[in-house]
Amino acid sequence: MPLADTARSLSPTLLLRVSIAVAVLTIALKTLAWWITDSVGLLSDAMESFVNLASAIFALLMVTIARRPADADHPYGHHKAEYFSSGFEGLLIIVAALGIIWAAVQRVLHPQPLDQLGWGLSLSVLSSAINGALAWAMLQSGRKHRSIALEGDARHLITDVWTSAGVVVGITLVALTGWGWLDPAVAIGVALNILREGAALMWKSSQGLMDEALEPEVMAEIEKVLASFQHHTIRFDHLSSRRSGQRRFVDLHMHMPASWTLGRAAAVRGAVEQALMSAVPGLRATIQLLPSDVEAHFDDEKDLI
Asked: What's the CA gap between 179 and 111, in Å, rounded?
């Protein structure tokens, strides 16, 4: 089995548990690298790993909640719990970035020499390689399972890899040039990149909580299925969609002759629903039957008061 297929077959829960273990390992490696070198750039890298740990724990909790079946209090399920994970992770990233900036400014005001850079850089590169491999596997699985929590954690790890790469480049330049100011400058650059990632995660989370419409490519697939059923006696309108974690929802009206029996109309509707759910994984379709000469009106002024 190809490596990518193996990664996609791994469950989000398993990968998040691995992410927690990897976060603990990278915290140890990067903290040791900072302690050896006294580099504020490596300190910023270590601080982000603490965010990785908190994010992975919270993501695992939210994914576990999202898998709960619907109940009397949550008839549509608990799928939106994953959006809280990505929003929480974005907030933690922003807090970590502000802490990095504060530490870097203190180093600018009070410069200190760096020590044993070779060992420090080696430990940072090792932890980055581990994070990179895990992030790749999480992205593969997250896309298959449509898990925003897993994908958010993966993208955060990718940011961590780029962060570490920037720190390594900065410290290497310090060693080559002797310009100590490059170390806090790189740390500030790392923090700004982390701020951007945190803001993006919080925005994506907010859009999911506000019932964002399905992706254009998914809507195109839905339209294609409906077109295959389109007939001079059957038409569709008032199509709307939304996303809720791993679930996708679509609502529409299907018009057909009033002379049709209820059994015949229901059979056609069932065929359309089955075709939609087969074409789009995780889709839940709700189709309201209407006679051809009846129109439903939405957004009338009296309804908006």
From this structure: 11
Kindly give the residue spans of alpha helices, DSSP state H, lying in 67-181. Answer: 81-109, 117-145, 148-177
Q: What is the pLDDT of residues 45-83, one digit of tens each?
A: 677 677 778 778 888 888 788 778 777 777 777 777 777
Contact 139, 151 (CB under 8 A): yes
Task: Give the integer Cα–Cα distance in Å for 21 and 264.
Answer: 56
Smallest Cα–Cα separation from 164: which of 111, 114, 209, 127?
127
Q: How far apart are CA 30 and CA 33, in angstroms?
A: 5
Top-tier CATH class for 216-303: alpha beta
The count of other CB atoms within 10 Å of the CB of residue 203 is 13
Q: Tens digit of pLDDT for each residue in 4-13?
A: 566 666 777 8
- Name the CATH topology of 3-209: Alpha-lytic protease prodomain-like (1.20.1510)
For the chain, the straight-line distance linking the first and the last C-alpha, in angstroms and rounded, comes to 59
Calculate what percentage of the chain has a pLDDT beyond 90.
11
Phi then psi for residue 147, to 5 deg, are -100, 110
pLDDT tens-digit map of 99-147? 777 777 776 776 666 555 666 677 777 887 888 888 888 877 777 776 7
- Block residue for tokens 């006294």: 38
CB-CB contact of 221 with 279 (8 Å): yes
Hey, where are the domains in the chain?
3-209, 216-303
